[in-house]
Amino acid sequence: MSTTPEKNIHFIHLSDPQLIPAGEMNYDINPQLRIRQCIDAILSDCVSLSLDFAVITGDLTHWGEEVAYKVLREELSRLPFPVYMLMGNHDQRETFSTVFPEHPIDDESGFVQYILDSSAGRMIFLDTLDVGKRSGVLCQERLQWLESMLTDSEGQPVYLFMHHPPFTVGLSAMDDDNLVNADEFLQAVKPYLTQIRHIFFGHLHRTVTGSWHGISYSCPLSPVHQTAFEFGNKPESKKPSYVSPEPPAYHLVELKPEQVVVHSRLFLHSEPAIDSRSCYRYQLHGQLNKE
Q: In this protein, which residues make up the domain named Calcineurin-like phosphoesterase (predicted)?
């Protein structure tokens, strides 16, 4: 696949919508309603932008059910641009491909891995699903594919997309469930560290940003429930007994030749806008309210 728009690239990054059958609830949340509200917000918030595509970095469904993928397909059909998806630990490759037969996959291996070449550089989408496990893996076949895509990138900027992060972040509920062969992943990407500009991932159900071996990264909140904001090991019970009701978000990303910009949008924030011209503002020395 390739796209070569003569402009900066704008796209939406979502992760972990965890769709279930229509009308069903999960953690006291209706996932179909949440993804619908998210799409409503994207269409409203970004009306002035020409969005190129959206990316959902895995956990498209909660149990990998065909009916859940069909709910996702129905909701995504409202978006006027392509949506590229990845596998998370809650997903099923075969069922996904049944419902989304036109979606790119690696025809030789069946992994949901592919590239998108754009005017911003090469985007590499990785399949970290390790069937039956919460953690992720890149087997030797997938690592070799990644290395070949990097070798073939010919020095252009590279952006990586994956579900599981290849490092820990300190969250007690998630750090044992990241990419289990992170050391092998690092060895595969190490010769290309100066080319890789950003890693986009999910899985954590929290907004997490930073850098790893000089590569910047970002992870969005989920459109549904969030991971507890708890750190360190808990000998009595590593997993918290609750999920966080914090509001959901999507990321708006802009790729420029010299910059990666990631905006986090809390799309269910319900407080009314504050009128900066008429609201009360604390001023020094009796100054009048000014913009």
A: 10-206
pLDDT by residue (tens digit) across 207-218? 999 999 999 999
For the chain, which residues score pLDDT lower than 70?
A: 1-6, 233-238, 285-291
Domain locations in the chain as residue ranges? 9-286
Residue 59: the pLDDT is: 98
pLDDT, position 238: 62
Q: How many residues does the chain have?
A: 291
118 in Cβ contact with 3 (< 8 Å)? yes
DSSP the chain: -B---SS-EEEEEE----B-STT--BTTB-HHHHHHHHHHHHHHHTTTS---EEEE-S--BSS--HHHHHHHHHHHTT-SS-EEE---TT--HHHHHHH-TTS---TTT--S-EEEEETTEEEEE---B-TT-SSB---HHHHHHHHHHHHTTTT--EEEE-SS-SS--SBTTTGGGSBTTHHHHHHHHGGGTTTEEEEE--SSSS-EEEEETTEEEEEPPPSS-B----BS--TT-SS-S--B-PPP-EEEEEEETTEEEEEEE-TT--SPPP-TTTS----GGGPPP--
Tokens of 219: 């992870």
**CA pair distance 256, 33, nearest whole angstrom:** 33
What is the reported pLDDT for 278?
Answer: 87
Which residues are registered as beta bridge partners of 210?
A: 217
Nearest to 206 by CA among 243, 176, 181: 243
pTM for the full model?
Answer: 0.93
Domain at 9-286: CATH code: 3.60.21.10
The share of the chain scoring above pLDDT 90, in percent, equals 83
**In degrees rounded to 5, what are phi and psi of residue 46?**
-105, 25
